[in-house]
Structures are given as C-alpha cells and as structure tokens.
Amino acid sequence: MLNLVKTAGWTRRDCIAGLVSCVAAGVASATSPRKLLVLGDSLSAEYGLARGTGWVALLEARLAKEKIMATVVNASISGDTTSGGRSRLAALLAQHKPTHIVVELGGNDALRGLPLRSTQDNLVAIVRAAKAAGAKAMVVGMQVPPNYGAAYTRDFAALFSQVAKAEQAALVPFLLAGIADDADPVRWFQPDRIHPVAAAHPRILDTVWPTLKAWLTAAA
Prior knowledge:
Blueprint: E1 6-7, E2 10-11, H1 12-31, E3 34-40, H2 55-65, E4 70-74, H3 82-96, E5 100-104, H4 107-111, H5 116-132, E6 136-140, H6 150-167, E7 170-172, H7 201-217
Parallel strand pairs: 3-4, 3-5, 5-6, 6-7
Antiparallel strand pairs: 1-2
C-alpha cells in the first residue's frame, strides 16, 4: 500500500503539491479555449440559405450564449464526399490546428452510389488523422430513404456508429432526426427535397447540441 507520508523520497508536502497540480490542470483543461473544425458537406455549408442561418453559424451563437470558449471553423463544402474530406484534411489540420473535429460527411457518397466499404474506410482514416493530430473527433451520421433498398439503407445508417465505436469517437447518429422522419417532412426541405430550409437548422442544432456540448466541454 502506498505510504502518503513518505514514499520513494516523496514527502507529505510533495504529495499535496502533486494533487493540487492535478486538480489545477483539470480545471484549466475544462476551461481552456477550444477550436472546433466542422468538416462537412452542403448540410453544414448553408446550401441555399442566407449566410449565418445554418446550424454551424447557430452553433457559434449558442457557444457564446453558454459561455463556452470555442472558436468554430466551418470547412464544409457543398458536394463533398468522405474521399474529398479525407484528401483535404491534412491541410486543414496544419492550418487551423483544431482541438475538436466534427465529421459530417457521407450523404454524397450514398447519392453517388459509392461502395459502403469505401465510405467507412474514409471515415476511419479521417478520425485517425484527427486523433494523430491531437484532436478529438465526432462522427455525425446520415440516413438514406428506403428506396435505396433495405440492406443498403440499414448498412449505411449503421456504418457511422461502427466507426465511432471502433475509433472511440463521439457520435450523433442522425443529423436530420426530427426533420427527415417528421410526420410532414416536406415542409422542412427546399424544393430539391435534399437540403433543409433555414427553419430546420435550429432543429438540427438541437439534435447535435447535447452530444457536442458534453464532448466539447469534457476535460482531456
């Protein structure tokens, strides 16, 4: 059993000082500024919306309201795939040095009929690159309509949680929960039936927020 009075040359004063340092480090970690990089597609890039009305812009306002010290960098590009996000991530990591990365990609992979294995491999590579750079990662899931076929629909939805679990990343299972599965989903979408209208984005933020807040404010 450890002798707190004197062990391996440590005195009681040394032990107390060490404990105080650990507590102080934990407090500093919980309150230190974060830099949040959103690596997404059109759903995060305000496609068809007035600037400042998308969920990422609303997130910035909520962080300020909640007094959570975090800078948000929206690196989302309309039409981007997991392959595209993977290819441009290294430059983004070098430029912005984020502490946290939200990965909102995969929908365009499905629209293009890309292999599920490719999508999953790309997401794994993105999360691993983020962790290697010292950043925490969050995977944001997507779902596709049942007309894609039961097996594809099921497997596509599942791959996001599989990646998050395997790589110990945070997870939001479905970005458009409460919108795409609403009793009257048409009212939440632009005429293309793909991109949400501005009124839907506060709902999107409410879906992401509980997980994101806990993930962002957790001590390292």
